[in-house]
DNA sequence: AAAAAGATGTGCT
DNA sequence: GCACATCTTTTTC
C-alpha cells in the first residue's frame, strides 16, 4: 500500500479519548498509528488493544493511585503513557477524564508503511514478528520513554488517525495477556482472524 | 529443544 | 529517576 491515504489524514481529536476506556479500546481497532522518522511516516493499523481501568482493576498500574512512575496515566485524555518493562517499553494512550487513571495499551499493529525501516529497527524480517506485541511495536516504531507524558496532539513525531479505507471487521474480546490480577476481565480486544494479532497459535 | 517476548523488579547515580 | 537484570510463558525450529 502506498501513502495517498496519508495526504488527508483524519487525526483523532483529544475528546475521542475522554469516554470510557473499554469503548476507546474497541474504537481504536482499525485506527492508524504513525511515527514520523527521517521525513517519512512509518506504521500501520491497530489490530489489538487492551483496556486498563482504575477502580477494581488490580492489573492496572493506576490501581495503587498516582505515583512518580505512573503520573502520565492520570493526565488529560490523549496523553501518551510509555512504561518500561524488561529493558523494553510499551505504549498506551490515556482515557477517561483527567485524574481517573485509565489507559488503552496498544498491543499489535498490522505493518503497512515503512516496513523496511521497521525491519531494521527490529533486526528481523518476519512480518508477523515485526509489530505483533506491545514491546515489539515500540521497537519497530522507535518509541521510547521520551514520549511518556506527551499529549499526542502536541507530539509531531506521532499521529493517530481514523482509517477511512478498511473499517469492516469483527471484534473479539478475551482476557488480557500476561497479568496476574483481575485475570478474568474480558478487556482485550482484537480484529477477528487478523494474522498480526499477538499470541496466535 | 531453543529462542523470543514480556502491565517486573532491583539497584544504583 | 533511570538503567538494566531475569524468569515464566509462548512461539519457533
UniProtKB/TrEMBL annotation:
Group of enzyme by EC: hydrolase
Similarity comment: family membership: Belongs to the DNA glycosylase MPG family.
InterPro entries per UniProt: Formyl_transferase-like_C_sf (IPR011034), MPG (IPR003180), MPG_sf (IPR036995)
One GO-annotated biological process of the protein: base-excision repair
Enzyme Commission number: 3.2.2.-
Organism: Rubripirellula reticaptiva
Stored PANTHER family: DNA-3-METHYLADENINE GLYCOSYLASE
Domain of life of the native organism: Bacteria
Pfam families in UniProt: Pur_DNA_glyco
Matches recorded under Gene3D superfamilies: Methylpurine-DNA glycosylase (MPG)
Keywords: DNA damage, DNA repair, Hydrolase
Coiled coil, from the record: none
Protein name per the record: Putative 3-methyladenine DNA glycosylase
GO-annotated molecular function: alkylbase DNA N-glycosylase activity; DNA binding
Amino acid at each position: 500500500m502506498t501513502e495517498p491515504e496519508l495526504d488527508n489524514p483524519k487525526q483523532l481529536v483529544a475528546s475521542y479519548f475522554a469516554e470510557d476506556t473499554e469503548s476507546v479500546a474497541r474504537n481504536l481497532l482499525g485506527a492508524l498509528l504513525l511515527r514520523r522518522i527521517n521525513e517519512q511516516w512509518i506504521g500501520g493499523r491497530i489490530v489489538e488493544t487492551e483496556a486498563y481501568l482504575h477502580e477494581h482493576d488490580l492489573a492496572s498500574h493506576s490501581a495503587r493511585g498516582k505515583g512518580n512512575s505512573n503520573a502520565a496515566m492520570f493526565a488529560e485524555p490523549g496523553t501518551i503513557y510509555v512504561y518500561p518493562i524488561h529493558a523494553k517499553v510499551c505504549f498506551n494512550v490515556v482515557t477517561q477524564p483527567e485524574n481517573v487513571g485509565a489507559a488503552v495499551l496498544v498491543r499489535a499493529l498490522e505493518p503497512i508503511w515503512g516496513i523496511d525501516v521497521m525491519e531494521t529497527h527490529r533486526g528481523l524480517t518476519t512480518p508477523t514478528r515485526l509489530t505483533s506485541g506491545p514491546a515489539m511495536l515500540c521497537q519497530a516504531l522507535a518509541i521510547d520513554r521520551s514520549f511518556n507524558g506527551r499529549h499526542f496532539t502536541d507530539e509531531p513525531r506521532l499521529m493517530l488517525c481514523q482509517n477511512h479505507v478498511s473499517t469492516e471487521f469483527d471484534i473479539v474480546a478475551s482476557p488480557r495477556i500476561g497479568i496476574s490480577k483481575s485475570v478474568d476481565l474480558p478487556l482485550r480486544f482484537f480484529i477477528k482472524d487478523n494474522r498480526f494479532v499477538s499470541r496466535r497459535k
